[in-house]
Amino acid sequence: MSLVSLSLFRSQRFRTPWRCPWLHRPLFSERHRNTLSRKRLSERSDHTMDAASSTSLTEFISRSITRMDQQEENISSTGRAVQTLATQVSQLTQQLQHLRGPAAPPTPAVQPAPPEPDSQPEPRLPTPEGYSGDPDYCRAFLTRCSMHFSLQPRTFNREQSKVAFVLTLLSGRAALWGTAVWANQDPCCTSFQTLSEEMRRVFDRAVAGREAARLLADLRQGDRSVSEYSIQFRTLAAECQWNEEAQWDMFLHGLEDRIQKEIYVLDLPRSLNGLVELALRVDARLSRIGHRACPNRPHDGTEGWHASGGNTASSAFTHEPMQLGRARLSREERERRRSQGLCLYCGRAGHFIHSCPVKDQAR
């Protein structure tokens, strides 16, 4: 068999069934040929699908890599922008602190150490007034000594020096007592506190509590000025437990009659301080106007009015007088009468409300 014949034989052996010449039938059955055909088609289809899948996967990977590169670039750009913003914020903060610097005092990073006690000189104080044993002055004396020690802590840095200083200020019977307790090394000499307590027990007889309240209830101005009366009143009021309303009533009740009569026609303040100030002004005004109008007149002003001539005042009363408690002067009228030195009751000159004859007749 030649080579051409062999080649033709190989190319066509599966295309046409080969028949045995002696059997006169095909070498492969029809079923076998169909199976071979399907196998070839399947292999060809798988090869096509594998090629397509490989191409799609390659494209997907390529797109993913491109997208990742873009995201990485975006992240880098964002990081650079954030860094730029942080730098700008830091610069603005420094500028703002620089602008605020002159307005507010700078806060030091490290607090300076407090100065040494020796670098601050103590104030030079006069020596407290001595104490001779007066019961009313005991607490005042001890209070002044306590303030003296507070202002000069380095000088009196020991309790023994405080006790010795107080004892050197004693005189009279108080000095005799101090000498005895110091010589006997009494326990009260161990500290200023114990010495103060013992001195209060021995010498202090100042009124307080119920005794101060009793004296406050019986207190009257008398012949004293309102200033002197108010000082004693406030001293006793500080020792008792009365409220401001009770003190207000007691102060007004203790004033002299002429002061009360002038005050009653005015608008009374509600506070104790306001009442005291009003009484002080009225007392000063009465004293000033009374001495200017009638220098030789007695303190109450009654005889001075009679000496000035009663028929002049009686002939001048042509209108109905103002009745105390029934009518109240206006503010302008009160100021006018005050400035002209007129009586606040009848409005005439020559006397004041406490010696007004019209008021006495109205009673």
From TrEMBL:
Listed Pro residues bias regions: 103-126
Matching SUPFAM superfamilies: Retrovirus zinc finger-like domains
GO molecular function, one term: zinc ion binding
Domain CCHC-type, chain residue ranges per copy: 343-357
InterPro entries xrefs: Retrotrans_gag_dom (IPR005162), RTL1-rel (IPR032567), Znf_CCHC (IPR001878), Znf_CCHC_sf (IPR036875)
Any matching Pfam family: Retrotrans_gag
Protein name: CCHC-type domain-containing protein
Organism: Hucho hucho (huchen)
